[in-house]
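Internal ticket #5521
Category: modeling
Description: The requester needs a full-assembly model to guide mutagenesis choices. All entity lines are attached below as received. Residue total reported by intake: 329.
Assigned to: D.W.
Attached entities:
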Amino acid sequence: MDDQKKLLRFDTIYENYADMLYRLAFSYTKNSHDAEDIIQEVFIRYLKSNHSFQSEEHERAWLVRVTIHRCYDFHRSKKIHIELQEEKHIVTQTQDTYLLDQLSILPKKYKAVIILHHLEGYSIEEISFMLRCSISAVKMRLVRGRRLLKKEMEDHHV
Amino acid sequence: MFNQKEKEMYRSIKAPDDLKNRILSSDLTSEKNKFMHHSILGFVACVCLIAGIYLFTNHTSTTISMNGHVISHQPVEVTFAPSLSRTNDDSSLTVHLTFQLNESYQISCSDGMIQPEIEELEKGKTELTWIIQNPQIKPYYMFLETDTTKKQLKLSFDNDKQTWTIVQESN
């Protein structure tokens, strides 16, 4: 693909998926700067890569996987603890930290499927394709994630 | 799982407007860096090539020959030299040498004399004769030196071939 075509493709892909990927990264980092860094890195990698994707689904799956792995790397390298200051940053964007606080209690592999399915609206099959895991594994993660969230909500209300 | 308000709230999180431009400018910067990197590598490669050619040329442009035979690290038979068996008081060993040099060398020898009597070989082509009176069965040396380079020619009698040979030795 020549540079011009690649940039045109980047425009389309960015318009379609940048916000979704940013939200995903933001859910993991709870910090806009780190989320921006991750997305910037993911798209630069996309621009530099010589992947020839079979379809847009493959392209999207690649972007989601790379974003999630970068979020894992981020957690590994920073071993972050959520700081009050960072939470305030979320307040300015969402006016409510409750949802992200809830999500933050989830183990990372449950978090991705919960976000992609319940908040981004992807089907179990689509998530299975994106994360390269079986449909039953996605279902299991959803069930366990929901259970944990439910317990968290109950504890919160008590 | 989540109510509509929560979903809307989540979806209200958007990537900053300038993020796209930052990505593109970062990519361009890295491309520029890559170009710079390649340019530097290209430049270094050219310098290495030129230096290599220069060194190779300098190394090979110095030749010492005898009657058209280049004297290298393989012994060259000295023609027209007297057989040692016929050596007598009047005999002499005469070696005609041609030097093609890329720089000036100080020249000297362990025995015998150089004709014409010179102590320095000029850059370029020089012909001279090394004469050893009443040669014995022992090696004779001719030394060529600059501040950085040393060469020596060894003239010795080969008992197997029963002839004199000359060879260039490295120091």
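Resolution: model delivered.
Comment from assignee: The radius of gyration of chain B is 35 Å.
Ticket closed.
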